[in-house]
Structures are given as C-alpha cells and as structure tokens.
Amino acid sequence: MPDTRLAALLSEAEALQPATVALRREIHRRPEQGLHLPHTQAAVRRALEGLPLEIVEGKSTSALTAVLRGAQDGPAVLLRGDMDALPLQEDTGLEFASEVDGTMHACGHDGHTAMLASAARLLAAHRHELAGSVVFMFQPGEEGYHGARHMIHEGVLDAAGSRAEKAFGIHLLSHVESGLITTRPGPLMASNDTFTVQVTGKGGHGSSPHNAIDPVPAAAAMVGALQTMVTRRVSVFDPAVVSVTRIQAGTTTNIIPETAEVAGTIRTLSESTRALVKAELPKVCEAVGEAHGCRVLVDIEPGYPVTVNDPDQALRVLDLAQRVLGRAELMADPIMGAEDFSYVLQRVPGAFAFLGACPPDVDPAEAPTNHSNRVRHHEGAFPAGVAMYAAFALDALAG
Description:
Layout: H1 4-15, H2 17-29, H3 38-47, E1 53-57, E2 64-69, E3 72-82, H4 109-125, E4 131-139, H5 147-153, E5 166-177, E6 181-183, E7 186-189, E8 191-200, E9 204-205, H6 215-233, E10 240-249, E11 255-256, E12 259-268, H7 271-291, E13 295-301, E14 307-309, H8 311-325, E15 329-330, H9 342-345, E16 350-358, H10 382-396
Parallel strand pairs: 3-4, 3-5, 5-16, 6-15
Antiparallel strand pairs: 1-2, 2-4, 6-16, 7-14, 8-12, 8-13, 9-11, 10-12
C-alpha cells in the first residue's frame, strides 16, 4: 500500500489536475519544434505565476529554469521536463489536436512540461518541508537538438548556487499501463549516432559495367559487412545495433551512377562499445570500397550518450513509486531509443523513469507508440507524474 505521508501527494496532484490538463492541451494545440519555443515558454511562465520561484530564461534557446528555495538551507535537486514537439502531421482526432501543420506533440513532451509545472506548484505548498532547493529544468530541443547540453552550458545544474546533487526525469509511454512507473538501475536507454557513407566509383552505361566502376554493389556489400562486424566484433553481453536505413544511388535504369550513399544509425548501451563501433565502422566500409575499386568517405555524426541511471537513485525511484502510487515495475531490459537527459546523468547522480500513459480504452499491445502521428497519452496518468516529481524532491530534501 502507498506510504500514508507520501500518498497525500497523489491526492494533492489530483487536485491540480485541471491546471495540469489545461497547460498540456494549450501546449499540444500550439506545438513548436527545436530550440526556440516562444509560445511554449510563455505558457509555462504563465503557469508558474504567483509561485515563489527564481526564474531565468535561456540565452541561446527558449529554455526556462526555475528555482524554489526551501525553508532551510541544504543541497539542490533537479527535476526536468522537455518541451519540444516533432515534425509530424497529427491524426488523433483529439478535440485539442495540433493547430500547426506538420508539427505534433507525439512523444509526450507536452505532458512532461505540464506535470513539471504542477509539481512546482505542489512543492511550493510544501516549501516549509524543504531543506534545500529544487531546480525545475524546462528544456527545449530534446528531439535531436541537444537541448540539455545547451542548458548545462548556461548553468542549469548550478542554478541554485551549487551543483545539484540528485536529478530526476519522467517520460510518458503510450503503450504501458496508465499510471505505472517503470525504470531500472544502470543503462536505461542507448546512445544514438548517425553515419553516412559516400561511395564513389566511375559512372557509365548500364549495358557496359566493365567500363565503369559501379558503387552500387559496393554499397550493397557494406550492408551485410556491417552486420557481420556487429556479430563478430561486439560482445553479445554489451550489445550494439547498426541499422542501415537509407541507400541512395542513380537516376534511371540504364546509367551506372558515379556515387552511392549508405546511411543509418548506431545504438549502444555503453560508451566503450560505442567507441568500438565508431572506430570499426569506417574500417569495414573503406575495406569493402577498396575491394570494389571505389573511394569511400565516412562521416559519423555524434548523437546522445548512453542514458545511465545511478543504481541507488533508480532503486529509490522504484521505492518512492511503491510508497506514493502503491505500485512500480523494475524494467528487465534497456530500450534502444535515446534521450538527452543522458547529459545530466553524466554529471549528476540521478534517474530517468517511464510513466505509463496508455488510454484505458486501448490494448497496450495495440497502442500507437511514441513518435506515431496517432499516439494518444492518457491524461489520467498525469497526477502520478506530478506526485512522483514532488516525492523525489521532498524525500531528497527532507528537513
């Protein structure tokens, strides 16, 4: 059963549900992409009006940092919610669906932002119980723009005057039972790097391949060679995924093109395996190209690091969820998606957790997942997220 003291937080979060939903729907209707989210930032500022917060806006982005000082001095903890949307055309039929063509909150960031704003209001009401400060990190640019790194550069981790000692973030999942918190110690989410391989041969007529140097079979051979590299160079106990997701070459049926391009993604669960794959991939592609008489240029664009939960903090989150919500679930395996809260967890002991938000009228196994233009997140899960944000801070800063 939930802890009596902490369980009261869930009731308080439920009382804030109208405000949480209102902010979520406002942001959902007006989604914004990338690092510059002026409407979203303004909506969050309005939601925080009247609270005893020290608010600072980002210098290079639409970030917003708010600090709540407790009644007593003490350390700082950081709570994070991301704010940006995705380049998708919404097809949910919701009454508050996106009004912006080609942009949609398909990953739950609107819910994260709304839950964090309500958590700020809930914690302000418990300010007298806090021996320390809470930093609320409202972050733009999670979807590939390295927004967390921008905020770290501008000082979010030290916003309270000293380095945050613990950090916590929540992410909604549309295919997990609504209201269920799940996480795990250690690696939780993968790194993500992007690779592009330019293969250059010599063009010619399709009827005379012997007079050309065809880059297409070289590119095709690289696809299989990269999979062999993974199975023969990477330990099965520290896995990697290398997926070729794009092959482009040629303009018509009777021309051997001069160039071909192979591109894809690299996912790993440790920085050592990440470094190994990034070192081996060019060697494989260059060797295959040489065997076919082609020149090869490999570019690897760094993405997000591995998201690694501090073991103690992850177990603490699961314990808090049991006490606050009456249930929690230990994840058996990491997932290979990526997350830029990883930059925070590289510097501050903390945890990232998933909050189930599958609509009750949908089978989780059939639910459209995050990044689908038909995804729906159940608003009934929001009080659990608000309460968990608050519980993490109150537990860490108990006077």
